[in-house]
Amino acid sequence: MTLNDIDVFWVLLCACLVWIMQAGFLCLESGMTRSKNNINVALKNICDNATSIFLFWLIGFSIAFGVPFSNPLGDGNFYLFHSSENTLNAFFVFQAVFCSTCCTIVSGAVAERLRFIMYPILVALIAGLIYPVAVNLSWGGSLIHNGEGLLLALGFYDFAGSTVVHSTGGWVALALVIIIGPRLGRFDSEGKAHTIQGSNLTLSALGVLILWFGWMGFNGGSAYNFSSDIGIILSNTLIAGSASLVFTLILIHRAGQSPAPEDLFNGALGGLVGITASADCVTSPAAVLIGAGSAISVLFTSKLLLRYRLDDAVGAVPVHLGAGIWGTLAAGIFCDLGTIGSELSRLEQIGAQVIGILVTGVWAFGAAYVLFRAINVYYPFRVSPQDESVGLNISEHRASSELYELIAFMQYQSDTGNLHRPAPTDQFTELGIVGMAYNHVLNTVRLKEEKLKASNSQLETANESLRTYDQLVAHDLRNPLTVISSYAAMLQEDPDAQNNHREYVERIRRSSDDAMKIIRELLNFSRASHELETLEPVDLEEVLYNVRIHLTPLIEQSQAKLSTDCQVKQLHFNEFALHQVLVNLISNAIKYTPSGEAPQISIRSYAENGRHWIEVEDQGIGIEQEACERLFDNHQRLHSSPGTSGYGIGLFSAKKLLNGAGAEISVRSEPGRGSCFTLSFTPAPAPAQPSNPFDLESQDETRTAT
Ligand code: ADP
């Protein structure tokens, strides 16, 4: 290799530009991944830069450019590369940063779930074996003996490495993506893809521009001399990247979609990858076509990955493999055959390109898949699901972030219910300011909580006084009313009383009876609500027996027939409250049976769907469907014909009592055919007989009134 000083300067300058691409990859990839992983992604990028250059120096450079299968320490080998020759050193630097580029392509694809410790291992294998062999096939052979790589000998042309660098990286990335599987949450159980939004797309955009800038060195330096060819190489590089981005926009617009940020990033980068194989030997219009084809390849490959549920976190495979394959093929189609000097016809050149693509693909993918699959058995590449959920910044590097701390703080609050510690704040950072705003919200919540507590205790006191008031009402109102009622009865029976006086007296008596009934119901409700605080085992048969005794006069008078069928005998409820509810339902069933007919009431209890049920069914006058819906509201009297006394508060109270202790009541009814009230209770916790809360079948026909 003979280079003059200006050529050496140019190659080294371009090597620096290629090295700057590492910064571009770092920005692009860490911005496209979630903030819980971005430190990890950035560290991986720095790490692969160092590891790959070290391995390339150690062994890779020799495999790529030494004499194949020769004595490692003999003439023509570059193990532990060292040379006093300026040209060779410049060449090494340029090739070493190319190797780094190939390795770093992989880090983006497998980001957010790869164990950090495994990353240097896989980079070592890429830089020490997979990449150098790919280089040797296409560009290699001995620098000293002017040997030729196998593909080079066939006439395969890859100017700056669409296949050698980019597709090789893409193939390895694909193999790893298959081996380690998608990120948690990327695909649901039906295979539908969910977008995982990057944490800083502005940073990614900067990364794309840095890469674009560095690409001038990537392609420009590949000429290895500072000649007039540099102009066309750089102009083609610019044009293809731009054309690819423009065509991406057109394609997405034609598909009726709006362009996602990653489409734009990958659209531009795809064009740059595509032109890399032929930047020195195609015309500008051909560069545009290569850019357009790259746009299609990137979009097509992305769709293909989604179809097979392969998760490439940054789109490395579509950009570097998809556009790399296209660019290499396009070199055969559009190149100036004279410039590349392969002495092949157009068709033969295309054939050589296809062979080059296939051979490199089989080597890079095959070697990566076999090696990494085997390693994965003993040393898994992937982090645990817990670590993946927490994020690799924390789990792999203990590198906390403000966001993580704020989230951890909120998690602590939701777990413990302790709202008294303030969130971490910092007036100079965005999340610190969020913390301050959150503390303001917390203060308001705390104030409200205190007010609520104060109102609660006021309510408690008021409730207590109400209970005392109940007793007063019972005592002070009921007694005088009883006296009025008794004297009215005596007056009514007085033979001297005039007829119209008797009627007035009758009215007084009825009103005082009604007032007494209301007081009784209110007292019962108040007592039952109070007693609901204790839930205990209740013997249903015993409760029904007491209800029957309680209602004996009504039952005998109406000649009602009560039948009971208790499959469930013990409920977990409050005895007094259940007694009140059943008294109300049974007396209603009697009351709302047409006069002259003997009421038929059946009471049934059973267990179903993990709950206990009681049904009280009558064959009375029934209720309109529309009225059923408001039956449990206060003061609902649907039937007020003579003989049916009531105030419309019985069912309202019953529902309140039941709901207060987790039970429910509903009704189904048909006018003229009777009604059926259904009560549903939660059984006492019984671990030996787990309930099935998911089976809701039988609730379909019963409207629940809660
Ligand atoms: P009331 O004291 O009026 O009976 P409820 O709250 O117990 O008050 O009942 C409200 C209304 O629901 C009643 O006025 C009646 O019209 C209707 N109702 C209650 N139970 C039945 C029933 N078993 N059959 C027909 N209608 C009923």
TrEMBL record:
Q: Give UniProt keywords alphabetically.
A: Ammonia transport, Membrane, Phosphoprotein, Transmembrane, Transmembrane helix, Transport
A GO cellular component term found in this entry reads: plasma membrane
Residue span of region Disordered: 682-706
Chemical reaction(s) catalysed: ATP + protein L-histidine = ADP + protein N-phospho-L-histidine
InterPro entries linked to this entry:
Ammonium/urea_transptr, Ammonium_transpt, Ammonium_transpt_CS, HATPase_C_sf, HATPase_dom, His_kinase_dom, HisK_dim/P_dom, HisK_dim/P_sf
Q: Which Pfam families match?
A: Ammonium_transp, HATPase_c, HisKA
Query: Where are the annotated coiled coils located?
Result: none
Stretches assigned to the Histidine kinase domain = 472-685
- State the compartments where it is located: Cell membrane; Membrane
Q: Which residues cross the membrane?
A: 6-28, 49-70, 90-110, 117-139, 159-180, 201-218, 230-252, 264-280, 286-306, 313-334, 354-372
Membrane topology reported for the UniProt record: Multi-pass membrane protein
Q: Which GO terms describe its biological process?
A: ammonium homeostasis
| Gene3D superfamilies in alphabetical order | 1.10.287.130, Ammonium transporter AmtB like domains, Histidine kinase-like ATPase, C-terminal domain
User: Molecular function terms in GO for this entry?
Assistant: ammonium channel activity; phosphorelay sensor kinase activity
Q: Which family does it belong to?
A: Belongs to the ammonia transporter channel (TC 1.A.11.2) family.
Q: What is the protein name stated in its UniProt record? A: Ammonium transporter
Taxonomic classification? Bacteria, Pseudomonadati, Pseudomonadota, Gammaproteobacteria, Oceanospirillales
